[in-house]
Every structure is written in C-alpha cells, then in structure tokens.
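Quiz preparation item.
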C-alpha cells in the first residue's frame, strides 16, 4: 500500500515539474508573439497607429477600445533611438517590451510631468559609450536601457468620450521614434 502511495506521489511530483516547465517555456517558444505579429504591419523605428480593436483581429492582446494605440518596433543595432510623445488631456502612457514580450519600463504623462514625454532608448553598451562630459545632465535627459537590441514600444492615449477619439489619434500621430 505504501509503495502505491509513493508511486502516486512521484507521479504527481513529476507531472507538476513537467507542467511548470511547459508553462515557463511556452512564451519563449511561441512563434506568433506580439513582435512577429507587428512585423507585417509596422516598419522598424517608426511610430505606426493601430486600428481600433475588433473581436478576433487585434494585433495586440487586451486592447481597450477607449484607448488610441500606436506602436514603434525598434532595432538598436545601428544606434540609440530618441522617442518623443506629446501627451493628451486625459492620459498618455508609454510601455517598453523586449522582443520576447517582457515589459521592462513604463512611464505615463503624470510621471513625466511635461507636455511631451521625451527619452533616449539604448542598450547598456551604447549607454556606456556615451561621453561622460556631456553638457546635458541626467536631470535633463531620460535614458532607458533596453535589455535586447529589438523590441516594441506601445503608446496609449485615453479618449474619455468616443467623440474625442479623432483628436486623441491626432495627438499620437505627432509622436516620433527615430535615430538620435
């Protein structure tokens, strides 16, 4: 009887290990992640507005119809990027994701405290290569280090009422994501 209980316990333990390994490995093995879905829709190092969400055809998961969304697929292999996003009256956020979909930085208009969110995106190697005696101080320049040379920047702006969506889209259309 005890031998059967040990076999059952070993089976449950092995099943748990296999389940945990599968859950942790599947996102990195997925071929249709957000970066690959956006590859056909957006150019590299340019801000592209996304269409309003529709059932079954969302390019990104969990898109909210109250938000205007734009994306910038970036590639830092040729140098750092300068991102400039004008803020809207209601709410604006900028989120950074690695190519595998791991979020590594986010900022919103309230945290930025300005009418335009401006920052430099670069790898840690590019950041280390910056001259130390620059005229700009750390307070004047927000630098975000990307853990990978490629990834996605998602810009979201809230339209508090459906009638304000065209104005919010116009504000996001002035966003820039280009080589610095």
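Solution:
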């Amino acid at each position: 009887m005890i031998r059967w209980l040990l076999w059952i316990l070993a089976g449950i333990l092995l099943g748990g290990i296999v389940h945990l390994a599968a859950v942790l490995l599947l996102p990195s093995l997925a071929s249709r992640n957000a970066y690959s879905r956006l590859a056909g829709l957006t150019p590299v190092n340019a801000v592209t507005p996304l269409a309003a969400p529709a059932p079954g055809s969302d390019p990104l998961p969990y898109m909210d119809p109250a938000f205007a969304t734009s994306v910038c697929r970036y590639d830092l292999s040729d140098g750092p990027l300068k991102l400039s996003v004008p803020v809207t009256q209601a709410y604006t956020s900028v989120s950074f994701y690695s190519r595998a979909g791991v979020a590594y930085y986010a900022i919103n208009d309230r945290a930025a405290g300005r009418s335009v969110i401006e920052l430099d995106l670069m790898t840690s190697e590019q950041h280390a290569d910056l001259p130390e005696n620059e005229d700009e101080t750390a307070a004047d320049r927000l630098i975000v280090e990307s853990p990978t040379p490629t990834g996605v920047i998602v810009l979201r702006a809230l339209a508090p009422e459906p009638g304000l969506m065209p104005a919010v889209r116009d504000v996001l259309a002035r966003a820039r994501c280009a080589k610095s």
